[in-house]
Amino acid sequence: MSHRTRFVFVGDSITDCGRDRGDSASLGDGYVRILADAIAERAGGADVRNVGVSGDRAIDLEARWATDVVAAHPDVLTVYVGVNDMWRRFDSDDPTSPEAFQATLLRLLDTLPAPLPRLLIIEPFFLPSTPAHREWIDDLDGKRAVLRRVADQYGATFVPLHDRLTAAAAESGIAAIAPDGVHPSPAGHALIAEAWLEAFGATDPDARAS
Q1: Do residues 81 and 58 touch, judged by C-beta distance below 8 A?
Q2: How many other C-beta atoms lie within 10 A of the C-beta of residue 70?
Q3: Are strands 5-11 and 46-50 parallel, antiparallel or unpaired?
Q4: Distance CA 81, CA 144 (A)
Q5: What is the arrangement of strands in the sheet containing 118-122, beginning at the earlier edge strand?
Q6: CB neighbourhood size of 167 (10 A)
Q7: What is the C-alpha to C-alpha distance for residues 40 and 5, in angstroms, rounded to an integer?
Q8: Each residue of 155-192: pLDDT tens digit?
């Protein structure tokens, strides 16, 4: 019997997207479900798991990393975090510096057992709807840079999102892509899935999804 590739997606509400946390097979209603359908026909089959939790920052991932990620034994691991590390600075006066963000990510990835899973790191996005949000973008820029550096360090596939969703919002309006600037609409989730598939397929000659 051929091995079913296990895909694990970990992150915050964008990954969680209403999944039933009492059901390990629940995928939520966002990009993870779209991807599960898209990769279902890959060679050997696919086992997709969504372990996103709404509100999580990198430090919150660390608290559950061993049970939700390492214990799942992923063949392909996707990490999507950073928006709440930005958000908490402005809604709770609880900032996360780029240095602290990077240190947490390195601790997480250093705990992955060998052989390392194939790793994809998704770039967070934010669509500002007011002039005051310029400061929010500046904060997120630091996290985005960290994620790109960490991806390079670990040989991970970096999935760029910010420019793609910014361009889509410029064309269709923010409300059509992510009404609050953060949480994607169905169209926004489709764009995330599209970006992931492009990045995954570009470095996996056996990827059958397109």
Answers
A1: yes
A2: 16
A3: parallel
A4: 10
A5: 46-50, 5-11, 76-80, 118-122, 157-159
A6: 12
A7: 10
A8: 999 999 999 999 999 999 999 999 999 999 999 999 99
Is 31:193 a contact under the CB 8 Å cutoff? yes
- Write down all domains in the chain, each with its CATH number in brackets: 5-202 (3.40.50.1110)
57 within 8 A of 103, measured Cβ to Cβ: no
Tokens standing for residue 4 = 């079913």
Percent of the chain's residues with pLDDT above 90: 79
Q: Which residues contact 167 (CB under 8 A, 6 or more apart)?
A: none
Report CA Rg, the chain: 16
The residue among 75, 67, 84, 94 whose CA lies nearest residue 15 is 84
Instruction: Tell me the percentage of the chain whose pLDDT exceeds 70.
Output: 93
Per-residue pLDDT tens digits for 108-122: 999 999 889 999 999
Tokens of 122: 């998704």
- Token pair in block for residue 139: 């904060």
Residue numbers in the chain where pLDDT is lower than 50: 1, 205, 207-210
What does the H/E/C string look like for 67-110? HHCHHHCCCEEEEECCHHHHHHHHHCCCCCCHHHHHHHHHHHHH
pTM of the shown model: 0.92
